[in-house]
Amino acid sequence: MIKGMSSDNIRGLVLAVSSSIFIGSSFIIKKQGLQKAGASGPRAGQGGHSYLYEPWWWAGMITMIIGEIANFAAYAYAPAILVTPLGALSIIFSAVLAHFILKERLHIFGMLGCALCVVGSTTIVLHAPKERNIESVKQVWQLATEPGFIVYFWVVLVVVAVIIFRYVPRYGQTHLIVYIGICSLMGSLTVMGVKAIGIALKLSFGGMNQFKYYQTWIFTAIVIFCCLLQINYLNKALDTFNTAVVCPVYYVMFTTFTILASMIMFKDWDSQGGTEITTELCGFVTILSGTFLLHKTKDMGKSASGRLPVYTSPDPIPISSSR
Predict the structure, then answer these.
(1) What is the pTM of this model?
(2) Residues of 16-27 as b/e, b for ≥16 C-beta within 10 angstroms?
């Protein structure tokens, strides 16, 4: 695997895996903080912000920031179509930690789902495309202002606005897809902005200052705005629904939209043949199958058939209406 990869892709791979460890852990730490804060004040899912005074939540936030920094650096070296699917590993770390810390038990089908995520991630790594050679952030700006990505950008903003003002008040507390949809759509724009800033930093450290261009600061503003929106609605999702469900569903939607945005903006398929693209798609479908299994079998064992559940929690929150 290493011999067939460029040095930049290897750096991106190591950073992406490190990022998954930190981010997967952060979900559990933040969940503990949200639970402690909810016991003494308004819950985040109900619009409360008492978690801001909870040390556990800040510990989780710091852990997530470390993971995002590693993820940020990974995008500077490797294409998004390689880095983003590796986020599936964070599901495994969060599922294992939730099993031991939050008592959200992971059983045989959960383990199978995790295994599928690993297989799919490995397939994508083995057939990852080489990074596009970019010599200036202006090149990224040119890609971002082509008609295809401009249409995608505005469609995302309109859809997110409709969800926030129309569907969040009605279905936010009962339908997981509402909060996660906002996080995933905005996350795809965040990744494209992070990719641009990562390239700018990489080139600047190499002696070519990219922060003299206004385009770099526009990308920075977009990333800040998108991140704040994501954090707000991810907190609501974690406080309202089971962590073992939030993580895989968020991953599937986030990865899908991010790969779509990357293909539109960076045209990752240009550097690959048809066989390579087909193999990567197979790897992605394998990951989707694993996360789908994690989500759809979470309630097994609650029916009269007595089948073994994948996840159980001492304080389950009904989410059946979110399907």
Answers:
(1) 0.67
(2) bbbbbbbbbbbb
